[in-house]
Amino acid sequence: MILYFSGTGNSKYVAQRMAEALNQSLLSMNDCIRSHDTSPVETDERLVIVTPTYAWRIPRLVRDWLLETEFPGAAQVWFIMTCGSEIGHASRYNRSLCQTKGLTDMGTAQIIMPENYIAMFDAPQAEEARRIVAKAQPDIDRSIAAVREGRPFPPPHDRLYDRFMSGPVNPIFYACFVKSSAFTVSEACTGCGRCARRCPTNSITLRDGRPVWGKGCTHCMACICYCPTSAIEYGKKSLGKPRYHFEAL
After folding, report:
1. What string of DSSP letters covers 15-39?
2. Which part of the chain is the 4Fe-4S ferredoxin-type domain (predicted)?
């Protein structure tokens, strides 16, 4: 089985490629997290988890859901992490998660996809995004081959920088940057509610036809990147930046 969490479509795309190539079923962790569904998930022995990289690890809400959910039948787990540049030393924390769950860690693969974290970085224009996705195909194919053949992913590099970013920087990043207070909405808002429907933590509600952000934001960027009128901004950091979601390619 292929489990995926996705904010703006990168990880969903990779998961769909994996599922089609391996003839495996797909499960959206977004749906499970939104509905607070932690009932057991029946799988075969091989489990593939596809997720974006948040602060050089898997997202906390994904980690928490995996810890709370049982996977009868699962024995081996491959992690595939999409990112704009790097995943740091996330493999260490994925391995620890597997140990807690009593599962065999088969490694973590990094897939570089178009950047979407416009609260801090620039998202690519459409043509550049297409180029990045095309360049990612061989890495996706290698990941598919490893799972199909039951091989572990090659060990990632283990630099001091990677350990630092996934280690002490991760909690500092969440504490200092992952907040919803900077989100604003302009008069261009039509009240369509797409932002609220896409929020994986149910943190957005509509008040008088306009979105209001609560405190559970995980910075997936789905609300700002899927807004059809580009009415949402993240303070001044997103001003003038292109929005990115995979389906826009």
Report:
1. HHHHHHHHT--EEEHHHHHHTT---
2. 180-209, 217-237
